[in-house]
Amino acid sequence: MTSVETVGSQQSSQAFTVLIPRGLQAAVDGLPAQSRQELLAELFRMAALAHEERGLLPSSAPYTLRLDLAGCQVSVELDPSRSRLTLSGLSRARSLA
After folding, report:
1. What is the value of pTM for the model shown?
2. What residue spans define the domains of the chain?
3. SS3 string of the chain?
4. In this predicted structure, what is the pLDDT of residue 13?
């Protein structure tokens, strides 16, 4: 029989998964190489940070973070209960020319 403490420690040690849905994969692939690398690095950095700070994250429901990154507007859904970080939106920022 598994104790509650064991289950809790197993869940808290689970790393966050970074998910890029198929519908957004083409947009990610279409970014310039440097922007794509910066985006992916930031997604994995956020996942690692979420794992480290899991106890500080609200666990009731997923929530969305919006940020400007590598010349793009990015939306990321963070779901602590499923240990998942999902890219949920990506659009290139428009330059004012």
Report:
1. 0.76
2. 15-92
3. CCCHHHHHHHHHCCCCEEECCHHHHHHHHCCCHHHHHHHHHHHHHHHHHHHHCHHHCCCCCCEEEEEEECCEEEEEEEEHHHCEEEEEEEEECCCCC
4. 60
